[in-house]
Amino acid sequence: MATEKDQDFFSHKHPSASQVMEEVRELWGMALPITAMNCLVFVRAAVSVVFLGRLGSLELAGGALSIGFTNITGYSVMVGLASGLEPVCSQAYGNKNWDLLTRSLQRMVLILILAALPISMLWLNLERIMVFAGQDKAITGMAATYCLYSLPDLLTNTLLQPLRVFLRSQKVTKPQMYCSLVAVAFHVPLNLVLVRMMGLGVPGVAVASVLTNLNMVVLMAGYVWWGKGMTMMRWTAGIGEVCGGLGPLLKLAVPSCLGICLEWWWYEIVTIMAGYLPNPTLAVAATGILIQTTSMMYTVPMALAGCVSARVGNELGAGKPYKAKLAAMVALGCAFVIGIINVTWTVILRQRWAGLFTQDKLVKLLVASVMPIMGLCELGNCPQTTGCGILRGTARPAVGARINLGSFYFVGTPVAVGLAFWLKIGFAGLWFGLLSAQVACVVSILYVVLVKTDWEAEALKAKMLTGVEMVECNEKDDEENKGLLKNENYDDHSNKDEFI
């Protein structure tokens, strides 16, 4: 007999307190390890910025510009495309469709390998692009060096990002945390050896980051291959079978990528716009610290968004629309609390925070003047990031992409440019632009999730998504070759053991 935990509840009944608390435990049981992992990833990035800052203001500015450029052109694309796995893997896991689960991982790795080729060309031409855009030559020269030595990281991310989504969709979060902990534990020693002892400077900082990510990939891939039950998964699909499903997966991956990139790009574009202010070295260095700070604060809502995407997808795949709705509502409530906490600490610590990254007094003063604005941005960023995770869990990433496009580029950009350059407010004007974008975004996201979502219809769509599998490219049957999808009978799945 199914327990209360396994049962859905009717739409006319409100969830009981015990159901709400059970969902809170379920959500944070997944989110806390992912948050810890994200914090460890932030520590890795922050350590790199600290070592750059200790090398000098020019090195810090160049490193910040390179980090912004690689985020815009590379890492955001990798993360965004990999997020297309979230609705497929989470709903497939809820539906116990193991074949779709494993094949989708293989397809995403192939997609990311193909995407890495044009990205690498952009990274190799960073200096030309930035000089053409009018950036300071000394800063761009330093940035180009950092970017060149970061190239191998593209290959590691073709495996790292899909593996994270693949495991999280199956509620496997603690192993990810432990793998990240082991890898990051060696990050500071790597920097000390490469930067201080060997005197490699900026290249040493970049190589240390690459090696740390490589360690994460090796550990996580080892867990997937040798972890409990993982070897039972079917990894032997032919190239035709894998290629045959790229189209349908791309239909989810591309809008997921756009939704994440449009927001991520705007944060990093702030770094580029700061380079056009009267004192570019000072402004870009301060922006680098603030971007790292927002990345730190982003660790919790990003974890919450990923986990609520998995929770919503799992429940929809299992045919439980109102448990999916409960997961969404609980996550949004938690997101607002997190936003309030971020506003509070940014105001209290605004005078001291920049001292963790640099000893330059002017940079510290500039950071302190903007931190309260940045804190207010997080009050909107937390629920809107969580809302985007809910949309991905319901396989509607295109909705989030349209909202981010309108909010950040038709609201935030005009406000930022107008305040910073036309009204001469300067550096603070850029961050007021971000605040306006976050307000527009959170209002739109909440309207879609709270008002426009039909959870029963989403459960039916999930049944359709997980009841199909991509056909092989070399299928001989002409009727099956007419489309990319064919219906499969997965009744035998109930007899298969879960892998995790």
UniProtKB/TrEMBL annotation:
GO BP, one annotated term: xenobiotic detoxification by transmembrane export across the plasma membrane
Which keywords, in A-to-Z order, does the entry hold? Membrane, Transmembrane, Transmembrane helix
Tagged with keyword ATP-binding: no
What is its subcellular localisation? Membrane
InterPro entries, sorted? MATE_euk (IPR045069), MATE_fam (IPR002528)
Superkingdom of origin organism: Eukaryota
Q: Which family does it belong to?
A: Belongs to the multi antimicrobial extrusion (MATE) (TC 2.A.66.1) family.
Principal location class? membrane
The organism named in the record is Rosa chinensis
Which Pfam family name is an example for this entry? MatE
Protein known as: Protein DETOXIFICATION
